[in-house]
Specification:
mainly alpha; 2 domains; Copia protein
């Protein structure tokens, strides 16, 4: 949320002295309406899937967003048994299969 505040407030902040001038590029882009900064709630952040521990309900919410398949529910299509050659069926292009 601090980036939202810094980019929307043109006042110089004593706490942001460590930010060099070239880092204010984002604020200039926001002011010129080239970039829009908006708050994304934690429950909507797909990146949390890869960076944070998620409980089952959050994981289920994100699985459609990233096209994640449940191997237990859809075990007819997925199997860890067999070899690459066994997986080369008519549904795959022969170019993708090993000769």
């Amino acid at each position: 949320m601090s980036i939202v505040y810094l980019t929307s407030n043109p006042m110089f902040h004593a706490r942001s002295k460590h930010i060099e001038v070239h880092y204010h590029y984002v604020r200039e882009k926001v002011l010129s309406k080239d970039v829009e900064i908006k708050l994304i709630r934690t429950k909507e952040k797909v990146a949390d899937l890869f960076t944070n521990f998620l409980d089952a309900s959050k994981l289920k919410g994100f699985k459609d967003v990233i096209n994640l398949k449940d191997m237990v529910e859809d075990n007819s299509q997925m199997s860890l048994r067999g070899s690459v050659e066994d997986k080369c069926t008519s549904s795959f292009s022969h170019e993708l299969c090993l000769d």
